[in-house]
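Question (not urgent): is this output format expected?
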Amino acid sequence: MSLSRRRFLGGSVMLTAGLASRFSSNLHVWPAWPLVWPGEPVLDDDVSSAIDAAARASIEAGACPGISVRIARRGRTLLSRSYGLANLETNSALTADGIFRIGSLTKQFTAALILQLASRGRLALDDAASRYLPFFTMARPFTIRELLTHTAGLHSDEQRSSCPTGPAGPRSQVQLAREIAAQQQLFDFAPGTAWLYSNANYIVLGAIVETLAARPLADAASAMIFEPLALRRTAFDTSAAVVAGRVAGYAPTAGRPRAFVHAPFLEVAEAGGAGAMRSTAADLCEWHHALFTNRLFDAHYVKLMLTPGRLRDGRLSGRNRFSADDASYGDTQYAMGLLVSPPSDAHRGVIHYGAINGFAACLETFTDAGLTTVILCNGDIGPDMPFRAVRRVVAERVLPSAP
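Got this back:
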């Protein structure tokens, strides 16, 4: 079954609302962050067994060869499990330190880089992107904030093939942004008038980071995020890099359950700010813990990162989704590199999925409870992935009860 990455992201957030009990609210008024609910999470043998069953069922269904699951609360690991194989050719078992490509989970790191630059006075979120990338000067103006919240309207050409790079290496984010600016169709809609998930937005944000940092995006992220937070197994990936502990990515073979081929080639570096990173389950748990305890920047910028996007007429961006396929988002809104739960949910949460050739990922944190779940898989995105089942166990049986 074919399932696009963008449609998967939308369809899967249907589970974000309604897993926990709700309180009644007709207003999109976001409470002060962070909230703290009383009670400690419960993670007993029955919970572990339920998560084991969900992961193994996914592998048995042929979704992927291996799955890594980690659950942590406020920096303390509650569960760490690895299932299946990291590499089919060497028959290597997956371990807790396995390094996966994480696809669009990259976007929250790119958003954080932009917010860091804003916190240092290097840019303002309502600046026009053309201020930093002059090749957009002749286009209708759109802002950095609109890029972050997917309301800029930039068209993303997902059909472009990826070939091995030449002697010069992968193209920079600035080069790719210049190509976006030269697209025959630059916009899907007028900037600020609708919402549509578009990788082009985050490539352009990566180009802004490269311009202001005067270094490649990978180097900027290392200096500004990975090194300060000691995320030692997290990086922007390249196809040429030799990485100890790297997990191989696979695509299921149609009509042959549990049969795989190597995922199609992709010069992952060119996914840049939209999807080029690699990481581990442990590092991703630590990333959210650091982010939501204000270790990267102060609470003002964390709040900005979690604030739902708005259109130029003041409406929440989700009130005018450009594609009818995105109705499944419901009241879940896109903020900056993160989907945020509606205020009607008893627990406030953020989530994002990632999908790139041979890999699928999910990172979710209930910010009020400080509870983070990471699920990493080494197979193409598809309906048999364990995301829904594992998230359901966490929400129904691990998440502390709201008062």
